[in-house]
Amino acid sequence: MSLYARANATVAATGTAVKNATASAAKTTTTALTKAQKLQRTAHRIDGAIYKWYVIAGVVFALSAVYVLGLLRALVIRRRVAAKRKAGATPTYGTTKAGGLTTAPRALKALYDNAAYVRVLPLYLYQRTTLAEAFWTIAYIGVCLGFGFWGSIFRNLPLDIANPMGLISMSQIPLVVGLASRNNVLSYLTGIGYEKLNFLHRTAARVMVLSVALHALTWAHRGLPTDNNIHSDVFKWGVSAGSCLLVVFLTSFAIVRRVAYEAFLFIHIVFVLMFLVAVYHHYEPYNYWVWPGLFLWGLDRFVGFARLVLVNKLWFRSNSTIELVDTDVLRVTVNRPLLRWSPGQHAFLTMPQVAGLRYEQHPFTIANVPDGTGNAVFLLRAQNGFTRRLVNKLADDVSTSINTYVEGPYGISHDMNHYDSVLLVAGGTGVTFALSHLLSIIKAGREGKTAVSHVRLVWNVRDASHARWIAPLLNDAIAAGAGGVSVSIDFYITRSEASGEPEEKGHTADRDPAPDATDSPATTSPSGSSTGVDQEEEKPSASDKLMLAAGLNAAAATVAHFHNGRSHLEHILREDVDASAVDAAGVHVAVCGPTSLALDTRRAVCKVNSSVAVLRGQNPVTFYSETFGW
Ligand SMILES: Cc1cc2nc3c(=O)[nH]c(=O)nc-3n(C[C@H](O)[C@H](O)[C@H](O)COP(=O)(O)OP(=O)(O)OC[C@H]3O[C@@H](n4cnc5c(N)ncnc54)[C@H](O)[C@@H]3O)c2cc1C
């Protein structure tokens, strides 16, 4: 029976007595409630908890519709432009006619995108979130508490927030559990990866904690009824559930996740399961909210385990090749012909011989694209736990093989093949995300399946030799050809922290953006090129040596450029926008790197993609940011 049907059944069960009670309730103020009044008020609360889900379903439906329309639009543009280019047509350059029906909506969109997604709120307002994330957080809390209070007010009966708050907290269970799942239906419907939806998991969990606190405090203030006193099962299970939730809440703070992730995860899983059991027994009439939570959790684990067994063919030994490519960076190659993934997706690696907790799993972005060999390549930067143990294990043996299990792929791939020009900005191992997209565009170019005419990778690294991390993949891809796509690979050698590691969501407070003044324009390419767009020029021998040291072959050397200092992103982006064609979906910028780099990129996009410039006919710029965390 559906939840709504249950609510209706509850109302129906009250029968005629309720109708009579309603009439008399109008006269009641603070006197004891009749059974019929109580039942009717309960049905009213249940309605509130269910209406909240109608709102959620409506929003999910709207987001899904936007997602599907976006996919269709991208498909149409990609096919149209790719067919034109295949037929030999050159891209159309110049600007769109200003102020017309085309540029006005685009200018409005640029204004909206910059305000909602590209700019981040100042750090003193909690965290560096976008306005869109802040909006969804506040809207969700508003809807939940709104329906909670609506459920507390019934006709002119006395206000009762104790039980409505209990009900609101229980009705969060499916969403809290569902949003934490890797195999997440909402992600597939809306196109927003589960790791990006994680902020809503935390929001729903906070609503749950807040409503449980209000539920408990109100009962404590009012005094327990005699049939539910401190010796009753309701009380004991309630206190158990509340205690478990408190432990989960206190061990979920960012600092705990950063310092002891495995402990956080273990406590999270064990105490959430204990919470679900306790809350199930606390108030059985509402335990239909617990079942969906248990179901979603079980389904997620079942699907994850099934993928693990199938992808790794667990009936064999599953090896990997691990190379120490730098003092702190590992390249892991696993051969799993059954693993199918799209650019930007990640997978969880388990290496029981290295793990602290035997089956601990860690997510890493797959740096290459499927090429028929079944090889998936990962780049791992050593932190302090599992990854450090792996580096230590390899310290004496620079290339070894360790039993590895892969679960994935996860995350929703962000396709870029309908844009005319793509600028991929990376710092440190954030290159895994950028490289997979670069290789995917090159492959699509080769196959005549992309609208992209120019793709540029800007990678900030501390040392030119870091190019070796990705050189084998680049060499093969460039040598195989990119069709009509012009490729530029710009290495910016910073020899500083600025090239550091990708930001982790929620961990952004500890690094400040470097001042703009530290950026140096891209003028020191050994090839003499100012920006790295010219592929045809001959390299002087110093450059040849540099390419050799970086492990790049002759083909890759024709598109690679080395620069000293940090990339000047506004300058680079402006150049790409000016050189872009107008027959595809404009220019796209994607970044994966440390906080300072992500903030620089955001600033560059806001400056170049001003609504005034777009109104005047400039190609619009869209933006995407990837983080290594949730
Ligand atoms: C979607 C995604 C893609 C990623 N891709 C890459 C990549 O391509 N290359 C790369 O070097 N790193 C990547 N990371 C980061 C990588 O997962 C962590 O650096 C790694 O798990 C750290 O393990 P550790 O035990 O050595 O870390 P610790 O020293 O214990 O912790 C270091 C940091 O990693 C986080 N962390 C630890 N374990 C996990 C875990 N199981 N899940 C999520 N976060 C964890 C901690 O919160 C902490 O902030 C990615 C992370 C995510 C979420």
From TrEMBL:
Keyword flag Lipoprotein: no
UniProt cross-references to Gene3D superfamilies, sorted A to Z: Nucleotide-binding domain of ferredoxin-NADP reductase (FNR) module, Translation factors
Bilayer topology: Multi-pass membrane protein
Main location class: membrane
Biased composition (Low complexity): 515-531
Statement: the UniProt record of this protein carries the keyword Ion transport: yes
GO molecular function terms attached to this record: ferric-chelate reductase (NADPH) activity
A GO CC term assigned to this protein in UniProt: plasma membrane
Pfam families the UniProt entry points to: FAD_binding_8 (PF08022), Ferric_reduct (PF01794), NAD_binding_6 (PF08030)
SUPFAM superfamilies noted in UniProt: Ferredoxin reductase-like, C-terminal NADP-linked domain (SSF52343), Riboflavin synthase domain-like (SSF63380)
Subcellular location: Cell membrane
Biased composition (Basic and acidic residues): 502-514
PROSITE patterns associated with the record: FAD_FR
Alphabetical keyword list: Cell membrane, Electron transport, Glycoprotein, Ion transport, Membrane, Oxidoreductase, Transmembrane, Transmembrane helix, Transport
Domain FAD-binding FR-type stretches: 301-416
Region span, Disordered: 498-543
CDD domains associated with the record: NOX_Duox_like_FAD_NADP (cd06186)
An individual GO BP term: intracellular iron ion homeostasis
Top enzyme class: oxidoreductase
Transmembrane segments: 53-76, 134-153, 173-191, 203-222, 234-256, 263-283, 289-310
Chemical reaction(s) catalysed: 2 a Fe(II)-siderophore + NADP(+) + H(+) = 2 a Fe(III)-siderophore + NADPH
EC number(s) given by UniProt: 1.16.1.9
Family: Belongs to the ferric reductase (FRE) family.
Name assigned to this protein: ferric-chelate reductase (NADPH)
